[in-house]
Amino acid sequence: MVHYIGYYVDKNNENEYSYNVPGLKKMQYVAASLKSTGEEVSIFSVCRKKSKGRFSTKSLITEEGYHLTYRATSVGGFFEKALDKIQFIRAIDKYIKTQVKDNDTVVVYHSVNLTHRLTKHLKRKKVKWILEVEELYGYGASFDNPDVHKEIEDIKKFPKHIFVNNVLPEFLGISQNYTVCYGSYIVQEKPITAPHDKVRVVYAGTIEQSKIGAYTAVEAARYLGDDYEMHIAGFGTEQAISKLKEMIEENNRLGECQIIYHGKLDGEELSNLLFSCDIGLSTYVIRLPFSNCVFPSKLTTYVCHGLKVVIGRAENFEKAEIAKGWTYYDENEPRMIAEAVERAQGSTGVDCTELIKRLDGDFKKWLKENL
User: How far is CA 256 from CA 228, 259, 333, in A?
Assistant: First the structure.
């Protein structure tokens, strides 16, 4: 039995529980990869409910055939928040003690509190532990958490790891018992699309004020001519989306490159948008060590849809095996980003279909050998 613990939500409960969209997409891919090894997969979700109240544990079988358990959770005022912290700890401890058996494997999607709590259970030597690290949360786009060393200590306590890029294990001083998975390795069948007379640039992903990526994309559009068109698809808070729409409205009034905001897209709708575009843009803040401690999931998604990629230069991107023919900018300035977009348009695209298939096979092989 393989147990997968993290902030997972099944399709029928996405409106009921709070979750991070990129994180969920990666968990969906990893869960499917675990199942492909022939192992039975049990997922324990530590998500909270969206609505206020106190909710008990819920268990079900998902459409994919996973055993899924949602923890008990409380949402509301000060008392509910305090109670939820207690429920979080008790739920994790109970699941490990009652559901995880000797010789089982536990794969954990890293978050600071979850990883810290599970270090208390690593003494169970007959259980195989794998920590999936998608980001070091203590290193931020604008500032670092002074307690980041505690997060790193907890990560290093796990015997095996799945890292999101090649630089993270080097940074942490881990040289063995790990693999790298950049994102969801899903080759997409490109449909026949109508020809277009403009170069289409797309930004797909989170819209949030702390990481400013979508806003920077809008600012870069002001330096592109009328032979370019920018498309943005993403999700965020009402305040973040409102600010984005205001910026787009101003750009479309004053700029030559027009921007279209599509709202939150998923599945076939997102794929159709990506296939209709030429260049995938990622405007993550270039700030060390933050830049080397992430690997935006949108990058792998862009590659799987055959897009040219434009991103800020960082060691972890340049060392990534999936980064074939990418175009880099060296400063997080709108004009430099626009210049990189123009260079990308003049570059030759790289077909990564076979590479994606190989990376997918290598990842599943590593899982099978380490479960």
Answer: 8, 9, 19
CA–CA dist 167, 171 (Å, integer): 6
149-154: Cβ within 8 A, 24+ apart: 150/116, 151/112, 151/115, 151/116, 154/112, 154/115, 154/116, 154/119
Query: Are 215 and 251 a contacting pair, CB within 8 Å?
Result: no
- How many whole angstroms from its chain centre is CA 178? 19
| Per-position b or e across 230-256, b if 16+ CB within 10 A of its CB | bbbbbbbeeebbebbeebbeebbeebe
Q: Which of 288, 271, 140 lies closest to 204 in space, CA to CA?
A: 271
Which residues, 6+ apart, have CB-to-CB distance to 64 below 8 Å?
31, 32, 35
Sequential pLDDT tens for the chain (371 residues): 999 999 999 999 999 999 988 899 999 999 999 999 999 999 999 999 999 999 999 999 999 999 999 999 999 999 999 999 999 999 999 999 999 999 999 999 999 999 999 999 998 879 999 999 999 999 887 788 999 999 999 999 999 999 999 999 999 999 999 999 999 999 888 777 777 889 999 999 888 766 678 999 999 999 999 999 999 998 888 999 999 999 999 999 999 999 999 999 988 899 999 999 999 999 987 888 888 899 999 999 999 999 999 999 999 999 999 999 999 999 989 999 999 999 999 998 888 999 999 999 999 999 999 99
d(CA 228, CA 256): 8
- Asked if residue 220 lies in contact with residue 341, where contact means CB atoms within 8 angstroms, the answer is yes
Distance separating alpha carbons of residues 259 and 218, to the nearest angstrom? 8
Nearest to 109 by CA among 133, 93, 85: 133
The arrangement of strands across the sheet holding 308-312 comes to 258-261, 228-235, 199-206, 279-282, 308-312, 327-329
Amino acid at 127: V
- Identify which of 20, 110, 355, 25 has the alpha carbon closest to the alpha carbon of residue 363: 355
What is the C-alpha to C-alpha distance for residues 182 and 298, in angstroms, rounded to an integer?
10
